[in-house]
Automatic annotation (TrEMBL):
GO function terms (MF aspect): ATP binding; phosphorelay sensor kinase activity
GO cellular component, one term: plasma membrane
Domain Histidine kinase span(s) in chain numbering: 415-628
Main location: membrane
Protein EC: 2.7.13.3
Class of enzymatic activity (EC top level): transferase
Source species, domain of life: Bacteria
Cellular localisation: Cell inner membrane
Membrane topology: Multi-pass membrane protein
Transmembrane annotation, as ranges: 313-334
Protein's UniProt name: C4-dicarboxylate transport sensor protein DctB
Cleavable signal peptide: none
Parts forming coiled coils: 379-406
Length: 639
């Protein structure tokens, strides 16, 4: 052991100066790694952001172009209308209202803002907004370029603020010729269609970017952000302002500068910008511009650099974390190398100790194993004894249930005997009559008596089948059971007692069949037991009334058996489901019927309860899960 310790000496610790130098190198390496990762992430994020911006800008420009050009044909089509040309030929001698209403219908159908007609001098002589306070009728628009272009024989286009409405709109115009056969013919009027651009701007608001459009004078006349509209992209000179006032394109809007500042160019067609004022001054943006040649406009998109900043921070943190993991791994490796020899020496010392402990542990494990084997054998014997006991208990319970059913059959014997004696007596009388009729050769009468004998034997077979069905053992098979049919079957077993006792029966259940899941034989036994107890409780009652009901409540079927007998004393109500407890006279019962019925309901996943009625009598309720069926006739014994 001493020689091993000499050969595995630990490395000498580093001096404090070298430790400080290593800490400085590690810190500088961390900063460099994080900075480089942030730069790479910035370039990648900016590239992705530019690709997204180019796609969004291309789609938005195509949408704007398509939205406006779909109205390009409209003024040309309306200029050829006979009603428009007829009114323009002699406007002073005609009523303008029919034409005004026609233009209003065209405006509504096409979905444009206004449609109006100018004469050769630029005066508005008919308009779709004739009924509004700011109607164009009577206004002169000869200063507008859409008028001068159209009166010169071409198609006019113009964007600007309305003189009366001050609404931003795009104008399409077309000349109207009353006589276009002459080589030197001149247009006699101009038809103008005004289109608003609010719908296009509303669609821009759904994008994660700022969109705006500038004209040739760098005026922002369309923007997804309302506060950017009617601002100059860059500050205007006084000469530029004066020229715009003369065209009256933007009325008297101040055209304040937007405050945009170019921070740095990025790639061809894009640059990094910010705003010194206004609603967008809180962030930096990537700006891209796309020319719209059909209208001579420039469309701009501003994508916030927030995702770029987030990507930089995430990359820097991830690089720092990775650098930390690598550094930590290197430190752990160095530390492990430093402690390796000490561990080897320690392991050699412990090897002998572990060998001794292992030998002791093997002896202890062997002894404990013997104890566990013995305990396991005892436990297996106890499990086998319990299993046999449970099997015997189950068999005893089934035999007890069958015995209770046979006891109920014994109680029903007198009524069944009466039910069978009447058909037997009738069969004998019909047989004697048939013999006499056959001796007298009256075969029709004999055949009628024999037919009556057949019907009586069928009736006796039905009674016998009911007894056989009730007395059979349960199959313990879960099936769908019709509640109404099960109650009807139980009542048939008590027909004679019901007639002899003059007992009135009230049935309360819905028209549709109620189905429960359970054991048919066991549910029949419970119902027969409850009905038999009710009949016995109503002996001596002046007007016995048996009420049978069924209903659905919260996916549960509740079956009730109610009598109007004297009820159960309150002190006994909590004990009636206990084995061998009975309120009957000695010799009238063992007190097992309700106990067995309660146990059957527990096995079927249901519940049996009893309550006294305020008007007298007892109500027994059976609660079972509802079992809706698609084709009940294929699943139930009572179908």
């Amino acid at each position: 052991m001493n020689s091993a310790g000499m050969n595995n000496q630990a490395p000498t610790p580093l001096p404090p100066r070298w430790r400080r130098l290593w800490l400085l190198v590690i810190s500088l390496g961390l900063l460099l790694c994080m900075w480089q990762a942030a730069q790479l992430a910035r370039e990648q994020a900016l590239s992705n952001l530019q690709d997204d911006a180019e796609n969004e800008l291309r789609l938005s420009a195509a949408n704007l172009n398509g939205y406006l050009l779909r109205y390009d044909y409209l003024p040309q089509m309306l200029a050829t209308r006979e009603g428009v040309q007829r009114f323009l030929a002699s406007p002073d001698s005609q009523d303008p209202m029919p034409l005004n209403m026609l233009l209003d219908r065209f405006r509504f159908t096409a979905g444009v803002s206004d449609v109006y007609l100018l004469n050769r001098d630029g005066d508005t002589i008919a308009a779709s907004n004739w009924h509004r306070p700011n109607t164009f009728i009577g206004q002169n628009y000869a200063f507008r370029s859409y008028y001068t272009d159209a009166i010169a024989g071409g198609q006019g286009r113009f964007f600007g603020l309305g003189i009366k409405s001050l609404e931003r709109g795009y104008y399409f115009s077309s000349p109207i010729w009353l006589d276009d056969t002459s080589p030197d013919a001149q247009p006699d009027g101009v038809l103008v269609v005004k289109v608003l651009l609010d719908d296009v701007e509303e669609s821009w608001a759904e994008q994660d970017a700022e969109l705006f459009v500038t004209d040739s004078d760098d005026i922002i006349f369309m923007a997804s952000h309302p506060e950017l509209r009617m601002n100059a992209l860059y500050p205007l000179t006084e000469e530029q302002r004066q020229a715009l006032r003369e065209t009256r394109r933007y009325a008297m809007e101040p055209l304040s500068p937007s405050g945009i500042e170019i921070n740095a160019p990025y790639r061809q067609g894009s640059q990094l910008v910010s705003f010194s004022q206004g609603p967008l001054s809180s962030s930096d943006y990537l700006s891209l511009t796309r020319h719209v040649p059909e209208f001579g406009w420039q469309m701009h998109i501003l994508k916030p650099l927030t995702p770029v900043m987030s990507a930089q921070w995430i990359a820097a943190l991830m690089a720092g974390g990775l650098y930390g993991v690598v550094t930590l791994g290197a430190g752990i490796g160095w530390q492990r190398l430093r402690l390796r020899r000490e561990r080897e020496a320690f392991a050699e010392r412990e090897r002998n100790t572990l060998a001794r402990v292992r030998d002791e542990l093997e002896v202890s494990v062997e002894r404990r194993t013997r104890d566990l084997v013995a305990s396991n054998q005892r436990l297996s014997d106890e499990i086998e004894v319990r299993r046999r006991a449970e099997a015997n208990l189950r068999q005893t319970q089934d035999e007890l249930i069958q015995a209770a059913k046979l006891a109920v059959l014994g109680q029903l014997a007198a009524g069944i005997n009466h039910e069978l004696n009447q058909p037997l007596a009738a069969i004998r009388a019909y047989a004697e009559n048939a013999r006499r009729f056959m001796a007298l050769a009256r075969h029709e009468k004999a055949d009628a008596n024999l037919e009556q004998i057949v019907e009586l034997t069928e009736r006796m077979a039905d009674i016998s089948a009911q007894l056989r069905q009730f007395s059979r053992k349960s199959s313990e098979r879960q099936e769908a059971i019709s509640v109404q049919a099960c109650i009807d079957y139980a009542l048939r077993l008590f027909q004679s007692r019901l007639r002899e006792g003059n007992i009135s029966i009230t049935q309360k259940w819905p028209n549709e069949t109620l189905w429960v899941q359970g054991d048919l034989v066991r549910l029949e036994q419970v119902l027969v037991n409850l009905i038999g107890n009710a009949l016995q409780a109503m002996k001596g009652v002046p007007a016995p009334q048996l009420t049978l009901g069924a209903q659905i409540h919260q996916q549960q079927v509740i079956i009730s058996v109610t009598d109007n007998g004297p009820g159960i004393p309150e002190e006994h109500l909590g004990h009636i489901f206990e084995p061998f407890f009975t309120t009957k006279a000695p010799g009238s019962g063992l007190g097992l019927g309700l106990s067995i019925s309660s146990r059957i309901m527990d096995d079927l996943g249901g519940k049996l309860q009893a309550t006294n009625q305020p008007e007298g009598g007892v109500c027994f309720t059976i609660t079972l899960p509802h079992s809706p069926l698609t084709h009940p006739q294929e699943n139930s014994s009572y179908a």
